[in-house]
Amino acid sequence: MVNLPRTRESADNLVQRLRLLAQPQRLMVLACLLDGEKSVGQIEAGTGIGQPTLSQQLAELRRAEIVTTRKEARQVIYSIKDNMEEMKIRLICSACDPDFGVEDLQALLDEKPVAAPAHAGRDVAAACFARIRMEA
């Protein structure tokens, strides 16, 4: 059975996520990053989105933890956070646009098994804590 949102909170979270992806420039950035990690200059050249708009959209994607960054010399390199995020992006885009890389999604599903989140199938509202022991 499909794990659909059963509470107002989970439905609101899903809507927030979909709103984040329902912005053309963010989708263009994500589509660009589906080809692999890129510098800001490469994203700008690949999408035609200029500054400061590109920086604003990248910041939104960072805050949502969809993309990650790393520094290479004086450049910031962006990539999609992980395989799960990549699959979500490809799935949403292919569901709404039949011409959008369905083969790529299938290849990703075939090649890279992804474990379901620990909370799959049940509502969980908990925090995880770690005990850190300081050596004297």
Automatic annotation (TrEMBL):
The keyword Transcription applies. Keywords: DNA-binding, Transcription, Transcription regulation. It holds the Pfam family HTH_5. It comes from the Bacteria. InterPro entries: ArsR-like_HTH, HTH_ArsR_DNA-bd_dom, Metal_resp_trans_reg, WH-like_DNA-bd_sf, WH_DNA-bd_sf. One of its GO terms (molecular function) is DNA binding. Residues 6-99 form the HTH arsR-type domain. The keyword Transcription regulation applies. NCBIfam families: HTH_metalloreg. PANTHER family: ARSENICAL RESISTANCE OPERON REPRESSOR ARSR-RELATED, HTH-TYPE TRANSCRIPTIONAL REGULATOR KMTR. This is ArsR family transcriptional regulator.
